Every structure is written in structure tokens, then in C-alpha cells.
Amino acid sequence: KRLSDLLPKEERENACSVRVPKSRILTLPELRANPFQHRICRVFSTSDDGDDSMSFEDFLDMLSVFSDSATSDVKSHYAFCILKRARCDFDDDGTLDKKDLEKLVNCLTGQGEESQLSNILEESDIDKDGTINLSEFQHVVSRSPDFASSFKIVL
């Protein structure tokens, strides 16, 4: 129903077989004010055209991650993917290091948070290699029961 509501009336009957343009996906309340809205579409879209349009299956995958019933592992996996796609992995090495996190905090807040950032990295970097990889990110998230509500900016 939610997907078909995004389509013109003449396409609603075939909602399960058409691709919904990204411009219509971005009208969803879950994405409207999200600073990562374009990256979220990119992560969930399977479009070969690079237009970030979504199939019915893509749409279901995206909304299932936004669902309250999604596990924190699923949410953290996609949050990490979205942060990487949002170029928060600024050096594109597959991890989030101190410089990446500084740039992320600056992008989100418009200001530096050096000391808080050092604490986040120190607590999250289990293998002490100076970066946060997916498993370390998921570990931190699993220790934070408020993750689902506090990280809604990404998911």
C-alpha cells in the first residue's frame, strides 16, 4: 500500500513490478528530513541505471530496516553501510578512523568534537588499530540499548 501510494494512479495496479523513482521515495516521512536520505536510497536500490529507483523488494528491504522489529545487528549493518556510502569513510579503506569520525561529526553538527571523538574511537576500537570496522561498530551498538532511537538520523 505504501509503495503504490507513491505511484501515479495508472501504475498502482502493477506496483509489484515497476520501479519507483528516487524522487518519490524521498517523500516518505522516514526519509524527508534525514540528512542521509540520498545515501539510504543508494544502499537499498538495486537499479542497474544508477538512478537509485527502487523495486518492490528494495522498498520492502528498506522499510524492514526502519521497522522497530528489526534487530540492532541489522540496523547497525545498514547504518555502517550508509555511513560508508555517505562518504563518511573519507579515505575509502572500509573502516571509520579518527579523521573519518571527525569529518562525520563536523558534517552533522557543523563543529568539531575532538575530545568526545577520541573517547568514541578509544572505546570502539577493540583491536586497537585506530579504526572502527563493521564488527566493532556492531559491538558498540549492541552495548547501547538506545541505538535504535538515537541513531534514527541514519536509519
From TrEMBL:
Pfam families: EF-hand_7. Keywords: Calcium, Integrin, Magnesium, Metal-binding, Repeat. PROSITE patterns: EF_HAND_1 (PS00018), EF_HAND_2 (PS50222). One of its GO terms (molecular function) is calcium ion binding. One of its GO terms (biological process) is integrin-mediated signaling pathway. Residues 112-147 form the EF-hand domain. The keyword Thylakoid does not apply. This is Calcium and integrin-binding protein 1. The lineage of its organism: Eukaryota, Metazoa, Chordata, Craniata, Vertebrata.
